[in-house]
Amino acid sequence: MHIDAQPFPYTCDLAHTALVIIDMQRDFIEPGGFGETLGNDVALLEAIVPACQAVLQAWRNAGGLVVHTREAHAADLSDCPPSKRLRGNPSLRIGDMGPMGRILVAGEPGNQIVPALAPVPGEWVIDKPGKGAFYATGLHEKLQQAGISHLLFMGVTTEVCVQTSMREANDRGYDCLLLEDCTESYFPHFKTAAVDMLRAQGGIIGWTGWGASVVAALQAHDKQNC
Ligand code: TIU
Hints:
The chain is α/β, with parallel strands linked by helices.
């Protein structure tokens, strides 16, 4: 499968590629969650949900592996270092009770993935205590067992959890493609900078592309295989 991308076309095959959706949780996308307690305007992030949905639907239809991540801590916060909980001056800290339950705690309403992108049976859901999807999750080992070598990234926020996860993946030998219209930041200039730096220097961390290009590549792939 060839996907139009920068700095040059991205090639992958469905059987060895996973769609990784980073932290599309109510805690980041809806008012009253972690993102808002940090002082952010969360409205920007909701706008990418339809673009993510279109890629997710096409990927599901093609039978590709889907990995959802959630930034989530245990109820006793044993996996939340004090440096993370005590950083800055948020209106509510991780573990505090907010309008959508306890902030960034697994199982709470605010910690769920937004309904439009909710996982379906068979899809992987990885809870992660850090920004990166590979830290303390076992994700690399699971992907290796599944024979995955290529990762397509969507989700939030571009320069925090998405960029960290893509850098971790690149160092572990995965070829990574970030979908620009399927990722967002609370700070538009940070998104622009992150996208630019990831694909600079001949794709030093990976490729960047657009959701529609993935959908088009899947359609072409479908035609070849029927
Ligand atoms: N604050 C911010 O931009 N992001 C996070 O805290 N987590 C994720 O990016 N998921």
